[in-house]
Amino acid sequence: MKFFIDTAQVEEIKKALELGILDGVTTNPTLVSQTGRGFKEVITEICSLVPGPVSAEVVSLDAQGMIREARELASWAPNIVVKIPITEEGLKAIKVLSQEGIKVNTTLIFQPIQALMAAKAGARYVSPFVGRLDDISSNGLQLVADIVQIFKNYGFTTEVIVASIRNPMHVVEAAKMGAHIATIPYAVISKLVKHPLTDLGIKRFLEDWEKVPDKPF
Ligand code: E4P
Predict the structure, then answer these.
(1) What fold does the segment set 2-209 form as a domain?
(2) What ranges do the domains of the chain cover?
(3) How many C-beta neighbours within 10 Å does residue 71 have?
(4) Is 28 a pocket residue for ligand 1 (Cβ < 6 Å)?
(5) Taking the model in full, what pTM does it have?
(6) Among the options 14, 15, 83, 215, which is catalytic?
(7) Which of 109, 123, 127, 173 falls between 20 and 30 A from 57, CA-CA?
């Protein structure tokens, strides 16, 4: 499973890179606004830091506007992936952009059929939003399972990015389902290796180490 970080904060991206597990980055207008920085400045800096795909979102609602913005975004760096919402206008844009070789991450997916439509139009990625469904008492992970199954049934190469992740179990369950990618906020990444028995085990080993005579270090 590939791990992306869901943030536009450069310091968080640097910390995730140091862990050696980072394969890419996703941003959205909300995440960029939280940095207080200019859109192009922050996206191009992220693209230069991370060798993998970096998603940046369009804001036009019509296909022509989306295509125009996507072409500009794609000119900023070779690893840009353009995020397009799943609408009828979005589908038209995905078709044109994928034929031009511009990679699209279709965002705001809440139904399996939306993912199938995006894949048929040529999207490179789809992003089902797990946490936002859980927030309204729906089953976000079931959405991921359904999309993975549908793509497998028909041999689509479109990759599933599990988005709107709220906790480590979202990542574990998505991995068991065979989702290709999880895009994870830094607060959740930092919980992924934590376990109280690991901390207790380290503490006990260090206490016992003190009893070992003639230590080399
Ligand atoms: C992913 O691409 C989205 O930007 C993100 O996961 C949305 O997460 P949220 O529901 O926590 O805002």
Answers:
(1) TIM Barrel (3.20.20)
(2) 2-209
(3) 14
(4) yes
(5) 0.96
(6) 83
(7) 173
